[in-house]
Design a protein that fits this description.
Length: 265
């Protein structure tokens, strides 16, 4: 691909992302719903990127299929299906409600469940807002979703959103043709080649890897497998500790600011 074509594709991608963002924003009815969408929209892509760097068996067909299916279930389906299939809003199972500790009816599968005609207690129940397809899937595979607490149902949605892309990618990869071994050897070999102190040293290291792409196989945590997890060395351990320290510092800073804001109020 030429640089001009790459720029053109990038511009098209930006335009498409903006259009999708506008459509998603028009479907939101609260800031909370928007935040939940932001937290799940990157999960299918994140799962793909992670497996791309750590699992040799990942295939192109599985990647696109997994991303599309997970996107439909996690992002598009919850908002589009109730509009495409209006009967879903009044389905007896989907409008089921349970009472909370205070005896107030709480929706399960929809963001809210109300009477189709406001003020008419004899009218049918109707689901509004997001359809929680994650809970529908759990119900279909045998989980007693109605007996879960509200917090457990909320957590279960995120668990399905996080686990489903990995399951789809692995399942579709196992039933499709794997990528050429020679290409994989070069990819993972170059990925493991350390950055050289100078351009000449780096070019020499890359050439050595090209000639012998398996020269880092001894660093694999699971030898003779499709998994490319590496053994930790001192640099890895120090980097992990530093990252954890920085993350905890950021969390601590936010906690301190919240406490400060609360005391000022």
């Amino acid at each position: 691909m030429t640089e001009d074509r790459a720029v053109f594709v990038g511009r098209c991608a930006i335009g498409l992302v903006l259009i999708v963002g506008i459509l998603a924003a028009t479907m939101m009815n609260s800031v909370f719903s928007a935040l939940m969408l932001v937290q799940t929209v990157a999960v299918p892509l994140g799962a793909t990127v992670m497996l791309m760097f750590f699992w040799r068996r990942l295939t192109v067909v599985a990647t696109w299929t997994g991303i599309l299916v997970a996107t439909v279930i996690n992002i598009v389906g919850p908002f589009a299906l109730p509009n495409v299939i209006p009967g879903l809003r009044e389905h007896p199972m989907l409008v089921t409600r349970v009472e909370d500790a205070a005896g107030k009816p709480q929706p399960i599968y929809f963001e809210s469940v109300v009477r189709a005609r406001a003020g008419d207690t004899t009218s049918a129940l109707e689901g509004r807002g997001r359809l929680h397809l994650e809970l529908v899937l759990l119900k279909c595979v045998g989980f007693e979703v109605e007996k879960m607490s509200a917090s457990n149902r909320f957590a279960a949605r995120f668990f399905v959103d996080a686990a489903l892309p990995f399951l789809l990618l692995i399942a579709f990869s196992l039933i499709t043709r794997p990528p050429p071994k020679a290409r994989l050897d070069q990819f993972f070999g170059r990925m493991k080649t350390p950055v050289g102190a100078t351009p000449l040293l780096e070019a020499a290291a890359i050439e050595e890897t090209r000639l012998n792409p398996h020269r880092f196989d001894h660093t694999k945590l699971f030898p003779n497998s499709a998994w490319e997890f590496g053994k930790w060395d001192r640099v890895d351990a120090v980097g992990f500790i530093v990252c954890c320290a920085v993350s905890l510092s950021i969390i601590g800073l936010f906690w301190w600011l919240l406490r400060l804001a609360g005391a000022g109020a």
